[in-house]
Amino acid sequence: MRLLIVEDEARIAELAKRALERAGFAVDTVRLCGEGAAALAMTVYDALILDLGLPDADGTKLLRELRAVGNQIPILLLTARDAVEDRVGGLDAGADDYLIKPFAMSELIARTKALLRRPGGALGTTLQAGNIAFDTIGRDAHVGVATLALSRRESTILEHLLRRLGRVVPKSVLEEKLYGIDDEIESNAIPVHVHHLRRKLVGAGADAQIHTIRGVGYLLAEAKS
Ligand code: CA
Q: What secondary structure letter does DSSP report for 149?
């Protein structure tokens, strides 16, 4: 799950990025309204965390532009304590929620997850294939009653395979979901994670299998009985 933070205060952006990454998200940060618009035009994000006081324009400008073209991305505003009118204006302009600075990182994570759980948000609850179940909120995977010990990246891969059960997930999409813009991606990184995930699933007796579609990506399919 990929998030964009538009925040000009470097320290806040960095702390938020690190906290959200620890919570299992891939996170990109930019510091200007214009950079935010450019990033959103290039990449599909699951949610936007938007500071209102930005150097080049007010964050509500970006918010209004997105809503004007029908973009329904969940948006969490970051606002200063004394900026009550901005906050109200932001919610009127189509923001989903707001956080007042300074905020606890645990609060940021909780609010972000709440946005993603809303109808139309990217977080469902439990994804299933055969005897495999994945809870997208707790981020734990089970095969039957057994809990699977997965790395963060293995969990993310499993989640996307489950979301497109029976259909191919291109390797490029997995790379986009797993890594931020600034991360170096080793060419064999995804195959290695998939290899480990596949071994864990087989070892636990999963009755759905990951198939490699050579040159394209991967597909999770339930075994035919
Ligand atoms: Ca600011």
A: -
